[in-house]
Amino acid sequence: MDITTFLAQLWGPTILAISLGVFVNRSYYIKIYRDLERSPLTVLVFGMIALTAGIAHIHFHNVWDTLPHIIVSLLGWSLLIKGALFLLAPNLVNRMGDNWANLRLVPFAGGLMLLVGGYLTWFAYLG
User: pLDDT per position in the chain (127 positions), as tens?
Assistant: First the structure.
């Protein structure tokens, strides 16, 4: 099994489950975000874990050949960037999250996650 398939097996079902959770109980996920923004230590720890995981992900997978490669690589880079932003600009992350919630973009994000998670799950287990 190659690294793209392995990472798709991890990311696909995880993103798929979260996206379904967003549709089934959107208010719960918004509450999680609101609780997160009130805990500076949680933001710091999340940023450290996300940055470290993003660096590791990119170290092992930074391939841009096919659609599955591109999606998996983008997830690694997104993780790295999000972790860095949580550490370097937590107030910016907070404002961006508020804008997404205020613009009611949570269903859009959930739909995008459903597509990406579904595709990666299909690719990893059935494709």
Answer: 699 999 999 999 999 999 999 889 888 887 887 787 788 898 999 999 999 999 999 999 999 999 999 999 999 999 999 999 999 999 888 888 777 776 677 788 889 999 999 999 999 999 8
Secondary-structure breakdown of the chain: helix, strand, coil percentages, each rounded to the nearest 5: 85, 0, 15
DSSP class of residue 104?
Answer: T
Amino acid at site 15? I
d(CA 107, CA 26): 8
| Residue 71 amino acid letter | I
Phi/psi of residue 36, each to 5°?
Answer: -60, -45
What domain range is 45 assigned to?
3-125
User: For residues 69, 79, 59 and 126, what is the CA-based torsion angle, rounded to 10 degrees?
Assistant: -30
Q: Are residues 92 and 123 in contact, defined by beta-carbon separation less than 8 angstroms?
A: no
pTM of the model: 0.88
- The total of structural domains in the chain comes to 1
